[in-house]
Amino acid sequence: MKRRKVDLSRLPAAAGEALDERFQAATPLRRLMNKVFPDHWSFLLGEIALYSFVVLLLSGVFLSLFFDPSMADTKYTGSYTPLHGVEMSQAYNTAVRLSFDIRGGLFMRQMHHWAALLFMAAIVVHMFRTFFTGAFRKPREANWIVGVLLFWIGLLEGFCGYGLPDDALSGTGLRIMTAIVLSIPVVGTWVTTSLFGGEFPGTVILDRLYIAHVLLIPGALLALITVHMGLLVKQKHTQWPGPGRTNNNVVGVRMFPGFAAKGGGFFMIVFAVIAAFAGLFQINPIWLFGPYKAAVVSAASQPDWYVMFLDGSTRLMPAWEIRFHLWGGGYTLPPIFWPTVVLPGILSMLPMLYPFLEARWTKDKRVHNLLQRPRDVPMRTALGCMAIGFYVVLLLSGGNDVIADKFNISLNAMTWAGRIGILLVPPLCFYVAYRICLGLQQHDREVLAHGVETGIIKRLPNGQFIEVHQPLAATSNGHGDEHGAGLEYAGWTVPKKMNRLGALAPTVKGFFYPIEKPAPPTARPVEAPVSPAPAREEITSGH
Amino acid sequence: MSSEQSRRPLARMVPAGTRATRSRLRRRLSAGVRLLAALTLVGGLYSSFAPGIGQAQDTTPKLSQSAEAGKRLYEVSCVTCHGNNAQGVDQRGPSLIGVGSAAVKFQVNTGRMPLARQEAQAERKDPALTPAQADDLGQYIQELGGGPQLPDSGALAGDVAAAKNDPNRLAHGGEIFRVNCSSCHAFSTGGGALSSGKFAPSLEQSKTDDIYAAMLTGPQNMPVFGNSELTPQDKADIIAYIQNLNSDQDPGGWGLGRYGPVPEGLVIFLVGIAFLVFATLWIAGKS
Amino acid sequence: MSTHTDTAPADEELDVLDPRNTKFDLIKEGARRDGVEIVHYAPRFPVAGTKAERRIERSIAFLFFLCFLGGMGFVVTYIWWPWRYESGAAPAVLSKLYNPLLGASLGLALLTLGMAIILWAKKLLPEEVSVQVRHDGQSPRDEQILTAAHITNMGEELGIKRRPLMMGALSLAALPLGLAAGAPIVGAIIVDPHRKDENIFDETGWNPKYNNGQPIRLTREDGSPIKPEEISVGGQITVYPGIPGGATNEHADSPTLLIRLRDADAKTARDNAANNTRNAGSQWGSYVAYSKICTHAGCPASLYEQQTNRLLCPCHQSQFQITDNARPIFGPASRGLPQLPIDVDSEGYFIAKSDYKVQVGPAYWERP
Q1: Mean pLDDT of C317-341
Q2: What integer is the mean pLDDT of A239-262?
């Protein structure tokens, strides 16, 4: 039979046609490739979380091939001698085996754990960027809520994850979680015994944590991430104000090839950071902790950093137990209820409601696609700094015994410092941030009105010394009026140094030292190429 | 010269008319001498026959040579806070009766004693006395009041070495360590905070004898783990576990001090996020 | 074919099939149809083959080469470098370097790959500024009206409102099906915490029922019983019920701290306990036994300070005064540790006279 010759040069086109016949992909594909993304460094922070999630999925698959979450008892016979013959659960056994008896297993475990820490850190940093720039406003309230949910579900996933090896540190954490759930009024004991299938720790909890960790919660996370990305694609990304940018357009680079290349490159860099950490920094050395036993604990016991603020709130809470009598029975609200159930409830609800609260307060119903500089919304920025102050005090209090030990401070004093700090630090942060914002705003207006300080000191004939200011634009009388009738503030960076004038980007390029030949100025969207500079006069304008 | 005066030649020197005074004075003088002689006689008789005050100093037990040297060291370095006979001084130092040479050797060889200042807890510092001096001091306290003693240093070192080579003993040491010791000294043996400024010190550099002595004598707020609670073999197993842990390099890279989630969280922000933020600045700039 | 009308302003449709179109014309037209206007598109090196361009190319190529080295290093290390566990330190024990080498090589490979791609995008791809039109706000009015009509029509056609029998029947049918979804949860997953035969919260492993009604001996982890003289003054030991599995997590609420107090402290403890109806008589000589399970959140409260007689829990820094019924004196714990009443049996070993007299561990809503 005659064989048809395959025309290689036509292969891609033929494949494309075959796909298009079935899926009509031509237009949607091109539309995707032409999507424009604005180009700012702070817009890449969320991607760190996305790429960490991919690494988590990949490394997690590897780990799941070797890990067994069973709580059945076994004796250790692996190669780590200090655990030789020790009785432990299968879960701990397989986790230690992964670390010492599977080639590259420790590397994978550490990659998985560091990626989890980075995932949560990136979410926090991204969340603050979104908050401080006002990107959560209409129409993106739903995306903001999805983001807050991603934080809390990510926290839960991390908790389930580090509890799986059944080591003494995470087992203690599980015990504390039990106490937290127990403290919930009315249903606490029911939820706890149902979760554990009986008394703590029972024989099923690890299997349940495992299925939550590898199936249920990742499913929820994937769904939420898809919604998050989908909303972003549909609503398009926000952007900073600037030349050519309006509330109704997006100025930037198209997806292919520019933005995708940057995204792909950044993925490699994030992955590189995780891989480097996995090899160079040890994390969660479970073999030092031994298997979980109810009588074993260590000094310096903390949960992973993203849960540590709740440990801090628990440590600071005074011993205020509420007992009361109802219908002939005595009922208890243990002190642990407030810092670990009520506080997270408030901390999840309040951020989710914030976009609506702020819209109500500012009476703002418009659609916003342009970002705001934090200094231009001092109330929001101050509130955010207050939240950060609150969070950091709790975070530090979560590690207060390590701080006490390493810095020779009394443990009791650390607790009291935290209790007082949690009341004093947030208002202080609020006030300081607010004043700084106002000050920055004022400086912007001042430069717009009077021009940039040149550093040239001039002596007037009457003996007065003045600094010469370079106005930012020519106005009718050569410089702005005394009372700010110069340029209008456009919501974007006001150049404050001489070498930033004209291009809104440094004309002297180079990060650590100037590059000898200055780069050509980047053309702005709607202007003709730069014409030669006009002859300049001596600078004589004042102030 | 009168005839009276010639019969008594000394009288010649006395002016006439003072004969009655002279003899009264003389009588008094001679009475005083007689009294003095009588008192001396009685006193001497008394002191030679009465139970000797001087003999009271001789009721202390005879100390060995090492203990004598220790006693001299004690009187220089320790007596201010621990008292003349190691009975303790209120608000300054506890009694050392019954603490044993093991306690002394621990405190002195780790430099904790002599105490530099009164604070929440004695701090480990460079020892002020040599090990030989510590031995002498310990011997003195041991002979004074008794108490627990360290086993032979060489034998203990041998037992610890044997335990390090025996996986069963090493693992057993780990198990007892985690039940009894890690709550204060941490899984990593790096130590931890106790209440009100006290702390359990790091064991990362601790010597065999010091660890043994600490378990045996329970210095300051550390509980006492006597030999019927943790046998000498148990103690050797624990020491072997601790020392093996600290000589075993972290397989996962730099251990971050083995302090757990606190430095891990710090590193992810200060190194990871910081590096990535710089990376984003490079990638996208500030347009 | 899409029929959207949202093109960027000012241009007319290009004839795509015109053979005089340049590639860039096609690009611009495609972008225009997607609502994008490419306002600036300049190659970085308009003159091909300049020194500067070659320098960039060389840097990128070098980065790719480093990536190759890193990748090869990773594969070689992964497969051939010694990795089995040995106690000791590098460089004597090479396996200690296995993980760091893996991290360094893979990190290098990925970092250089990422940098190469980014450099390619930043320095070789053309400079570009594009503007895309957003389409915010409401859908066109007629679309809204049409969709609303569809939805309301659905309701009308189904006719639920004018068929009350159907509505009632539907609601009735839905009820058990809704319950059916909840049945597995209630029937299988939910466990009654106060089941009489289990007594999860009211009993621990010290309950004599585990020993045929006999008091249970205090034992070490290996099961050996304990005599009073085995604990030194100022000493403490963790004890477990002397029943099968007593020292395992099967009885995770049972670990107990047995402490031998100094005589003066023992007297203080006894005096303080005398005023407490539960704890009076639980002490034996100068020995006290308290539950190790912290009443705050359940961690083992095990940092015993023998001079201050405080028991510190490392999790949240609750402190309990052992000489005063183990009542909390600092930190978030609000209830003292339960005391185990102890005695010595005829053979001289410690026994628990009874179970704890109060619930062990963290509190809960219906705690008596």
Answers
A1: 95
A2: 90
- The reported pLDDT for the residue numbered A204 is 95
Q: Measured between beta carbons, which residues in chain B are less than 8 angstroms from residue C230?
A: 226, 228-229
**A501 interfaces chain C, CB cutoff of 8 Å:** no
Same domain for B144 and B214, yes or no, is no
Q: What's the pLDDT at A501? A: 62
CB spacing of A278 vs C40 below 8 angstroms: no
Q: Which residues in chain A have Cβ-Cβ distances shorter than 8 Å to B120?
A: 410
Place of tokens 């997590």: C249
pLDDT band, residue C10 (cuts 50/70/90): very low
Which pair of structure tokens corresponds to residue C258?
């047995």
Q: What is the pLDDT of residue C44?
A: 86
Instruction: With CA atoms as reference, report the closest residue to A96 among A278, A279, A287, A282.
Output: A287
CA distance A317 to A178: 18
Tokens of C167: 């509505």
Considering Cα of A422, then A423, then A426, then A428, what sign does the dihedral take? negative
Neighbours of A277 (CB within 10 A): 26
DSSP structure string for A169-202: HHHHHHHHHHHHHHTSTTTHHHHHHHHHTSSSST
**A465 near B CB under 8 A:** no
Kindly report, residue by residue over A176-214, the tens digit of the pLDDT.
999 999 999 999 999 999 999 999 999 999 999 999 999
| A476: confidence class by pLDDT, cuts 50, 70, 90 | low
The whole-number pLDDT of residue A89 equals 96
Give how far Cα C117 sits from Cα of A274, A493, C51, C61, C63, Å: 18, 30, 20, 10, 9
Close Cβ partners of B188 (under 8 Å, ≥ 6 residues apart): A288, A298, A300, B245, B257, B258, B259, B260
Measure A4 CA to nearest chain B CA, in Å: 48
Min mean pLDDT across A204-218, A394-408, A507-521 is at A507-521
Q: Are residues B113 and B166 in the same domain?
A: no
Please count the structural domains in chain C. 2
The H helix count followed by the E strand count for chain A is 18, 8
Question: Residue C50's pLDDT is what?
Answer: 87
Cβ-based neighbours of A66, under 8 Å, separated by 6 or more? A94, A97, A98, A102, A105
| Neighbors of chain C with 3 or more C-beta pairs under 8 Å | A, B
pLDDT band at A362 (very low <50, low <70, confident <90, very high): very high
Q: What is the DSSP string of C174-227?
A: HHHHHHHHHHHIIIII---TT-TTT-TTT--TTSGGGGTTSPEEEE-TTS-B--
Residue C56: pLDDT above 70? yes
pTM: 0.89
The CA distance from A412 to A400, in Å, is 10
Its domain, for residue C278, covers: 208-352
Query: Given B111, B131, B149, which residue is the final one in a domain?
Result: B149
How far is Cα A132 from Cα A474, in angstroms, rounded to an integer? 33
- Alpha carbons A366 and A372: distance in angstroms, whole number: 14
Domain A35-240+249-337 CATH superfamily: Cytochrome Bc1 Complex; Chain C (1.20.810.10)
Domain ranges, ordered by start, for chain A: 35-240+249-337, 448-500
Mean pLDDT of B45-70: 71
Verify whether the Cβ–Cβ distance C302 to A297 is below 8 Å.
Answer: yes
In a domain, C104, yes or no: yes
